[in-house]
Write a structure and sequence with these properties.
The complex is a heterodimer of chains A (504) and B (511). Chain A has one domain. In chain A, 72% of the residues lie in helices and 1% in strands. Chain A contains 20 helices and two strands. Chain B has 511 residues and is mostly helical. Chain B is globular, with a radius of gyration of 22 Å. In chain B, helix 4 runs parallel beside helix 10. The chains are: A mainly alpha (504), B mainly alpha (511). The interface between A and B is large, with 39 and 33 residues.
Chain lengths: 504, 511
């Protein structure tokens, strides 16, 4: 490759197109710089700096929501900027902001270095944003690995806790396995698509457009099918779909609560953003293979997630396994999206509703948790409604929305998915999903029951086993209050968001 | 003046909800209670206004007071469309009246954490007004769930014996019912091809392109199962007595009196005009389930009850059997009788729950074996209870009589055998109704009761308790003596609905 080609390639690099990601990277480095430069007593303001930087980036992104590059490829086809991509970018920034708010509460209970945590959150967020816009397997893999490696550290961040370290190790081993499968799948696809004996073979088989053309010309190739299944398996690890959900309960329990929230919402949404691109566009001509695989996966995921969550007593495991069932509902939407245009909008709405509800619940969890972050039992919630009505109300709204109870946002998400699934003809899957919703009521309401209905009588002989509750500060109160309110309002009135979703 | 400067239907939904939001945002208790009187009274004023003017306002497809508000889902054919026809009008009035009675009773009860209790009750009230004012099937379901959620919390927090278990059971059963009926509604939405949840548009569309017979059977089956659970159709009724037994009085009044009618209302308003063959297909199994299960089996179980509140709970399950029979019988007079019975039963069961709690406050127990002779000490309470019992048995002069009579008349054409069995049920309800009145109020006083009354002599009904009871009793008598005030609109609404949609199969076979 001579210099001219490199120059030509460089001319396509439009750095302005990834301005938000660059902002995050600079912000992340600035945090480390500030830690060195600032005197120790000013370090408490660094998280605020990160938070305001994130809010600023989100505001900038929303202000310039339709940049000139929208609808185009940049960086020689590494990235494709689309409207869903913009929506996911805003989604991940919102997730990062909420993770930072939660981290302020949670990290205050530990003797840990703080700044690196925010640094990693920023890096991982930037990588997720790139992931949602990737148009090339190299981009996809690099971004995915950045996310995963960031999470290895974040999951085991509470290094004095054995549970956190164990979770980190489990995530490392399982993550490596899934990366291996993904990479093997990519290699197979690349190899097959580069085979000069086949029609429409291409030298740039990593590029999604070229690969899609090749797959359309060879709709029943065995090696390509194997590659596709392996790639799907790699993505299924990220979203925690059956049978790749085994890491979920342990990792969710061991990880610090803000990281659990980040995994549950951010990582899962990133997985679905990738899955939507792959299943709908790249592997479109292999729908005969992809859709049955995803259908079976969705059915098993819904059943497994709901049944496994039934018996949990640790709330982190409970919400982890209930998150598995949510992945199943979202997969139902992905299956429907093959034929129903509205399904894609339904998935985005579901993700936003899930974000709002999950962070409300996780926010309450950070306040109820004690110094031992992995030990959060349902019993710790006894008497919450009496002692802290605000937290209890936020918890009830969050869990209600997760359970999909009208008039909360989660119900609208489920309704959109159900309607599109019915239109897509996935009847039996829909019946299964409805059964899953009924089952999920049991464990979500068990949690609400623990917080509201149970009278707490402190044991006479031993100390109160419930950890002391953190008082709600202004920032976290405001955040939790607006999340709860958003859950209610989005259920009643979808407004322009609803119009955007249903016009597709 | 029949024209108000605002939308009376939207106001009666919004007023309770707005106050609930204000309480959630931290309105002080004194103001909450004071404003709650207004928030419960506004729906009644609006309901009386629309009832009074219903005859003379312009109507579209039988719907008066039509308005539509966009919520951003027009692409899916969902919008908040409000209006009343002859079927929803009586229930709209019922919801407002029972809501006022329940609200007044809650305010005087001085429950623990009264503010939150009132907030939940207001949400329920707003949802109920919405259920019957919605012309959009989606919002009809949505408001039902909105009203349902506070029930779970109220049973769980303020409930009596077994409240935790009762709340859980109630939640799971009712979610199951709601989920299955949601599937039915989605199926109807997608398969109708009309791309809208608007009931009027759906009706027009399906009148022009009726659904195939199999499809109608399937959708009607889903709706009957789902809504059947919500209305406590035997054998999925077990949540009802347990839940009502545990629920605090105002929640039981609103749920048993009004919210439970949602399922029947859905069948009459949605399934009957849109899926006539579907309902006709299931009418025989439905009628047999209702008469053997709800009326005879549950009726005998009701006789055996010792707990006053559970007895009322079982009796309400039993009366739902008559409503199902009316729907199965079909025609105009059957469903019309059901609407009338729904109103009558809603008023009488709410009154019974209210009085049961009033009795509890005087005897400290719901066990009927431990009462007796209360009539000497509390004659007014006794008079109210006997009147409510007679109403619920279906004595002429009360609204219930007309509802049951119309259903029996329609049922005779459907199946004389089932009619005979159903009439036998009336005897059962007379047995448990009169027996309960006798055990509580007449005969010698028991030792347990003597102990309680010696410690705290029971006072008769005071005005704070009497006013809500009087509202309900007056409405029962008003409809009982002047049923035409409701049957006029009901007839007008059912006549075109039963005649217009084209049938795929000729009418259902009869025995």
């Amino acid at each position: 490759m001579n210099l001219e080609v490199v120059k030509l390639a460089a001319a396509d690099n439009q750095w302005g197109a990834i301005f938000p990601e660059l902002m995050l990277a600079c912000l992340a480095l600035a945090l480390l710089g500030l830690e060195i430069v600032l005197p120790k007593k000013l370090h408490v303001y660094i998280p605020d700096f990160a938070l305001s930087g994130l809010v600023g980036t989100l505001a900038g992104l929303l202000f310039n929501f339709r940049p000139a590059t929208l609808g185009h490829d940049t960086f020689n086809g590494l990235l494709h900027h689309s409207e869903p991509g913009q929506v996911m970018r805003a989604f991940f920034l919102l997730v990062a902001i909420l993770v930072c708010v939660l981290a302020r509460v949670s990290l205050a209970k530990q003797k840990m270095p703080r700044i690196e945590f925010y640094h990693l959150v920023l890096i991982v967020t930037g990588a997720m944003m790139l992931l949602a816009q990737s148009n090339h397997f190299v981009m996809l893999f690099v971004a995915l690995e950045t996310v995963t490696i960031g999470f290895y550290i974040l999951v085991s961040y509470f290094r004095t806790s054995t549970a956190s370290l164990e979770a980190g190790l489990k995530y490392l081993v399982m993550g490596a396995l899934s990366s291996g499968m993904l990479l093997f799948g990519i290699a197979l696809l690349y190899g097959v698509a580069g085979n000069p004996d086949l029609p429409a073979h291409t030298a740039s088989a990593m590029n999604f457009n070229a690969l899609a053309q090749f797959l359309a010309a060879n709709p029943h190739h065995f090696l390509a099918s194997t590659g596709i299944v392996l790639v799907l398996a790699g993505v299924a690890f990220k979203i925690g779909a059956f049978p790749f959900q085994i890491w979920v309960p342990d990792v969710y329990q061991g990880a610090p609560t803000p990281v659990t929230a980040f995994l549950a919402v951010g990582s899962k949404a990133a997985g679905f953003a990738v899955l939507l691109i792959l299943a709908r566009d790249v592997f479109a001509s292999y729908a005969w293979l992809v859709m049955p695989v995803l259908t079976a996966m969705a059915a098993a995921t819904i059943v497994f997630g709901n049944l496994a969550a039934l018996t949990q007593h640790n709330v982190k495991r409970l919400i982890g396994l209930s998150g598995v069932s949510h992945a199943g509902f979202l997969l139902l939407g992905v299956v429907a999206s093959a034929t129903v245009p509205m399904a894609q909008g339904a998935i985005y709405f579901y993700l936003f509703a899930y974000l709002i509800a999950s962070f409300a619940v996780f926010g309450v969890m950070t306040h109820v948790a004690g110094a031992n972050d992995s030990d959060q039992d349902l019993d710790h919630y006894a008497g919450l409604a009496k002692e802290s009505p605000f937290l209890a109300a936020v918890l009830a709204i969050g869990l209600g929305s997760l359970a999909g109870i009208p008039p909360l946002a989660g119900f609208m998400g489920k309704l959109f998915i159900f309607i599109s699934a019915f239109q897509g003809g996935a009847r039996w899957l829909l019946a299964l999903a409805a059964a899953g919703v009924v089952i999920s009521i049991y464990y979500y309401f068990g949690w609400i029951k623990a917080a509201f209905f149970e009278q707490w009588t402190p044991p006479a002989d031993t100390a109160d086993p419930r950890p002391a509750r953190t008082p709600v500060s202004f920032v976290s109160g405001l955040t939790l209050g607006s999340l709860a309110l958003a859950s209610v309002l989005l259920g009643f009135y979808q407004g322009p968001l609803g119009q955007w979703l249903t016009m597709k | 003046m029949s024209q108000l400067p605002f939308d009376p239907l939207l106001l009666s939904i919004a007023a309770p909800l707005a106050l609930a939001l204000a309480i959630a945002l931290g309105l002080p208790k004194r103001w909450s209670v004071l404003l709650a009187y207004g928030a419960f009274a506004i729906p009644v004023l609006m309901a009386l206004h629309v009832w009074f003017h219903f005859g003379d306002v312009a109507k579209d497809h039988g719907y008066a007071f039509l308005t539509r508000y966009s919520t951003g889902l027009d692409g899916l054919g969902i919008g908040l469309k409000l209006g009343l026809n002859g079927i929803s009008l009586p229930l709209f009035v019922l919801a407002a009246l029972v809501g006022l009675a329940a609200g007044l009773y809650a305010i005087q009860s001085g429950a623990e954490r009264l503010k939150i209790y009132l907030m939940l009750l207001l949400i329920m009230q707003g949802g109920l007004m919405g259920v019957f004012a919605s012309v959009d099937v989606f919002f009809f379901y949505f408001f039902h769930e909105l009203a349902l959620i506070p029930t779970f919390i109220m049973v769980g927090v303020w409930g009596g014996r077994d409240r935790s278990y009762a709340a859980m059971k109630l939640t799971i059963y009712l979610t199951l019912g709601a989920m299955v009926s949601l599937l039915g509604l989605i199926m109807l939405y997608v398969k109708s091809g009309a791309q809208t949840f608007d009931l009027i548009a759906l009706r027009d569309h399906l009148a022009a392109h009726p659904l195939g017979a199999t499809l109608q059977h399937n959708i009607a089956g889903l709706l009957l199962f789902g809504l059947g659970v919500l209305v406590s159709l035997w054998p999925l009724h077990t949540w009802a007595p347990l839940g009502y037994g545990a629920a605090p009085s105002s929640a039981a009044m609103l749920h048993a009196g009004v919210l439970k009618k949602f399922g029947l209302y859905g069948l009459i308003q949605i399934a009957l005009p849109l899926l006539p063959d579907g309902l006709a297909h299931w009418s025989h199994p439905l009628a047999w389930l209702a008469v053997i299960g709800n009326i005879l089996i549950v009726g005998l179980i009701t006789i055996a009850q010792r707990d006053l509140k559970q007895m009322i709970g079982y009796s309400s399950v039993m009366h739902m059997g008559y409503a199902f029979l009316g729907i199965a019988a079909g025609g105009i007079i059957g469903p019309g009788g059901v609407v009338l019975l729904m109103v009558a039963h809603g008023l009488s069961v709410a009154l019974l729950f209210l009085l049961a709690t009033a009795i509890y406050h005087r005897t400290q127990t719901f066990a009927m074996d431990e009462m007796g002779g209360l009539a000497q000490k509390t004659p007014v309470l006794a008079a109210f209870f006997v009147a409510a019992t007679l109403a619920s048995i279906g004595l002429p002069g009360f609204a219930n009589f007309w509802g049951e009579l119309a259903i029996f008349v329609a049922l005779w054409k459907f199946s004389p055998l089932i009619t005979a069995l159903a009439v036998a049920g009336v005897v059962i309800s007379a047995v448990y109704g009169l027996r309960s009145a006798a055990r509580v109020f007449f005969g010698p006083s028991t030792e347990a009761l003597a102990k309680v009354t010696a410690a705290r002599p029971p006072a008769d009904l005071g005005w704070p308790e009497k006013i809500p009871a009087l509202i309900l009793l007056a409405a029962l008598l008003f409809v009982g003596f002047w049923p035409k005030s409701l049957t006029g609109p009901i007839n007008a609404a059912l006549t075109p609905a039963a005649a217009a949609p084209a049938r795929v199969v000729p009418s259902a076979p009869s025995l």
